[in-house]
UniProtKB/TrEMBL annotation:
The chain crosses the membrane at residues 34-55, 67-92, 112-134, 146-170, 190-209, 216-235, 265-290, 352-370, 444-462. Its main location: membrane. InterPro entries: Azg-like, NCS2. This is Putative MFS transporter, AGZA family, xanthine/uracil permease. GO terms for molecular function: purine nucleobase transmembrane transporter activity. Belongs to the nucleobase:cation symporter-2 (NCS2) (TC 2.A.40) family. Azg-like subfamily. It comes from Lentzea waywayandensis. It is a multi-pass membrane protein. Keywords: Membrane, Transmembrane, Transmembrane helix, Transport.
Amino acid sequence: MTQLRSRPTTSSLDQFFRITERGSTFGREVRGGITTFVAMSYIVLLNPLILGASADITGAKLTIAEITTATALAAGVMTVLMGLVGNAPLAIAAGLGVNGVVAFQMAPTMTWAQAFGLVVLEGVCIVIMAASGVRERIINAIPEPLKIAITVGIGLYIALVGLVSAGFVTRTPDAAHSTVPVRMGVDGHLSGWPIVIFCLGLLLMIVLLARGVPGAVLISIVVATVVAIVVNSVFHVQGWGLVSPTLPDSVVSSPDFGLFGRVDLFGGFVSAGVIAATIFLFTLVLSGFFDAMGTITSVSDEAGLTKDGKVEGMGKILMVDGAGAIAGGVTGSAPNTVFLESAAGVGEGARTGLASVVTGGLFLVALLFTPLATVVPAQAAAPALVVIGGLMMTQIRRIPWQDTDFTIPVFLTVSIIPFTYSITNGIGAGLVSFVVLRICKGRWPGWLMTGLALMFAVYFGVDLISGK
């Protein structure tokens, strides 16, 4: 009798998510959802590290508590929505790399509300492009090697941010009158417990990832944090930076929704200027939908959800992904996008949106434990930036270096992004050089590519044009 009573509920759930149809089980979906959460929950710790490291044009900084709340809230709601609407085992959270654009490029030229306003506009643009089919045409217009170069360049950029946040790399002061802009540690050598914690965390993370341990990133961050707390309590260490590893009075507290709804949609065009704000918006859109497209395709293919080269339900998935960027702006967590770590859940057997509902639910539960984020020092979390940057760089093997149409444009994209701390600059340099090369070789790059190159040319020459 018990089995007969439970059958309608189980059958209804099965039919809605098509669990049996896709060759999965309820248990596999739950395990897959938990695994994905463990694999990507580090974003709740890392996003505050990135957004909290920068001040806006007024000098205002965001607090760790409110960024942590915003990150978990957006990830939870949008991942659940992906499960219910897209019915895909794809989790969504604040995108690494693109959040660096918000923190280090946009915020210094405008207020945080204005920066998050541009993030909302990015999401609106992606939703419109997904609905109209323009997204696919733009993707087809930009050559694959340049798309790969953007990913690789962002990987280097993220790794550099991690090294700087940990203090492994520091800026050489102007007083030194040196032509070398950066150096290792302080005074050219490594010293102090914070650096030791960073190195231990980085080595542990590398080993765990190499051995295929699920949740390697999160485990390494937790272990490094525990060691940092012990070391700090014994030796009373100085120089941790933004966060000192000290246990809070309570690990549970009410979420801080202070960033929710703090959005100024068009103020950024006034503060940063129309051209600069437009370039920022373009960069967010470009990075957002290209990263998502690659992730969605690869994870869906691994899950067996691709037929004849097309992802099942791609239209709905892309709409939810675009809505994730909007949610990132509204909550104050930076653009949200599909995470490659979703593949970890697929590896555990996840094939449907039920896994995403489980993952999203765990992110919402994490809202009650935001004080834990104020315990994690940069030296414990930064190794993840370095490792993820390294993993993103593996795409470089797909670049056709022997093709002279791409050799220099790809190199400029990959190198200028980290060297100038600007994803915008790298993308622009790559597009402009590619278009110039094609035209000089008598090969028309197309109106769309030419238009994008002209827009970047104006961006690079705006000060010259304005007479500054």
